């Protein structure tokens, strides 16, 4: 899961205001309900010291409808000056919450990323295509671009003879050239903007031609979903259900791919580590490609919930103790930070991803692990006690 969109929070002035809000507004009272929830949170934030200008800015954002149907949530994070993160969540929080403090509550924002899939919807016919990009949440369209071919011999007709066959060939040639135009534009945009998925729908023949015409980078993220069209008369509800199912499958697959790799590397004792101490060590050195955070069973506390780390000004300045932080050369602007916040902050600072692991999905010590970009002789190495009832891990450092 990509966390680059959290980078605007790095190096910003405190205090940080984090709002985790149920933004569902399906019926006539929905908008009023959202405002009621927000006003209660605002009163709390005023007592906690959030700047009034920040709260006014959040006021304006909350008042704007998200245009997302059905139950959904929203996470907003601001520094001392402005709102830096505003994301829609596919699921509303069980309870709307807010906090103001020296560090942002990054886990709600990270969970928003875990629930999201930025994608490009391509609706194609024989004349061209409509390309609709979604925002980072994968829920809100950010605009539609139309790509039209310049060949207009569109319709094949029944008939016979040499003239008819020539006409049919001209029509086929027009379709293929129009599709080539769309494919070239699609290849360019996917290379530049890198969506997680490209969802392709529309005219059956045009879809087949476009699938053959696009480059390898598009093919790797392309999913065909029937039922959409550039024309009117589409069953929007049924088509949206198909899209939702594809996105849900993708999120499960994305998580499982990361966890599969973690299991494999852990089994080899190679490019995976676990335990808070070992993960902090590799985060300090910028070795992490994917941070793994355990999700406890329902009602159970997280192993990290009461843990604190010492941090400095930079995201990679973190340690278990103040003395450990001094040992890596950080003695100024040091403070304690909740461990989960410090870990996610460090992951963002080295362009690492984040994957949440359900209870029992992988073997984690202290509820945290990491996949590595590289290792050397000083990197902590793990070995599993697979033939023992002891579920803890021996660390060979």
Helix content: 25-40%
Share in β-strands: 15-25%
CATH-defined topology of the largest domain = 60s Ribosomal Protein L30, Chain: A
Oligomer: single chain
Unreliable segments of 5+ consecutive residues: 153-169, 384-397
Give the helices and strands as they follow along the chain: EHHEEEHEEEHEHHEHEHEEEHEHEEEE
- Shape type: globular
Number of strands: 18
Total number of helices: 10
Mean pLDDT: 86
Biggest β-sheet strands, sense, barrel = 5 strands, mixed
CATH architectural designation of the largest domain: 2-Layer Sandwich
The end-to-end distance, rounded to whole angstroms, is: 29 Å
Walk across the major sheet and give the strand order. Answer: 7-6-5-8-9
Radius of gyration (Å): 25 Å
What structural class results from the helix and strand content?
alpha+beta
CATH class of the largest domain: Alpha Beta
> What is the domain total for the residues?
3
Descriptive account of the structure:
There is one protein chain. With about 400 residues, the protein is of the alpha+beta class. It folds into 3 domains: about 110 residues; about 120 residues, Nucleotidyltransferase, domain 5 (2-Layer Sandwich); about 130 residues, 2-Layer Sandwich (60s Ribosomal Protein L30, Chain: A). Helices cover about 35% and strands about 25% of the residues. It is built from 10 helices and 18 strands. The strands form 5 sheets. A 5-stranded mixed beta sheet has the order 7-6-5-8-9. A 4-stranded antiparallel beta sheet has the order 3-2-1-4, sandwiched between helices. A hairpin with a 4-residue loop joins strand 2 and strand 3. Helix 1 runs antiparallel to helix 2. The chain is globular, with a radius of gyration of 25 Å. It starts with 15 loop residues before the first strand and ends with a strand.
